[in-house]
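User: Teach me something about this protein's shape.
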Amino acid sequence: MKKRVNIFRKVVLVACILFLAGAFFTITIAQELPYEFKSQGLSNNFYDTIFGGIPISILCTLFYTVRAHSSYLMNIMVVLCTLLATYLSFVIIMGVMFSVGFAVWDEAPYRYRQIQTNTIVHKQRMELGVFGSGGYRYVIQEPYLHFWNKVTEVDSSYVMTPGWIKEPSSR
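Assistant: First, the predicted structure itself:
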């Protein structure tokens, strides 16, 4: 029985560390990659899971860090430090959510299609929620796997040349 509990504690610790590493990668390095979610709903669910899961996974590390053979004072210190880290991560995540967390690229009601090659360029607006709008960009979206689009930003003069037609966007 004790061996199963130790295995469970190690599995929880490894899962928490992997989740935290993935969350850190997602909210830092992956933001610079040219891939975006196809669906805004999927994106919202993903980031809700990431932002909600960070404090929970920090708390779950207590399964491994509190030990029977450690002193009472040491275990109290571990619990207090873990609770402090959980609280700080929650506060930082709330700060991120309310500063840039609501920003999303929203498609304009029209797009441009090149007549000869059938290339489609979408005009998008940075929607900042209650903070207004953050400007426009023109992008070519190519499907990537099933849930993402590879986004290549192009200059607006690219679509202002002859041979492009303006048409309604499918949103």
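Now, about its shape. The longest helix spans residues 72-99. Strands lie at 35-37, 104-114, 120-127, 133-144, 148-154, 164-168. If you'd like, I can walk through any region in more detail.
User: That's plenty for now, thanks!
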